[in-house]
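Dear colleague,

Thank you for sharing your sequence with our group. We've completed the structure prediction you requested, and as agreed, I am returning the results in plain text so they can be pasted directly into your records. Please verify that the sequence below matches your submission; if there's any discrepancy, let me know and we will rerun it promptly.
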Amino acid sequence: MVWIDTMESIRIEGLTKRYGEIVAVDDLSLSIMKGELFSLLGVNGAGKTTVIKMLSCLTSPTEGDAFLNGRSRRDEPSSVKSIIAVSPQETAVARG
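Please find the predicted structure tokens below.
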């Protein structure tokens, strides 16, 4: 896919994550345009962290795909990892 300035920065298509019979994220689709401000809000257990983990290639979706700057997290995970950073709210650092 050729990157064009007018395309979405993030495009999510049918992203689903199941853990056994538990559905953590169910068929999420959305687009975030370049320069657009977006916030992911929800109650505990809504799947926010799971979405971030899927976008950053820390876990794989059961179904669907996400594209960051036109790059597929499924087909080009190394490329996606090179353009995304995650800073958790609480940082855990081992002593020593």
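Summary note from our side: The CA atoms of residues 88 and 94 lie 15 Å apart.

Kind regards,
the structure core
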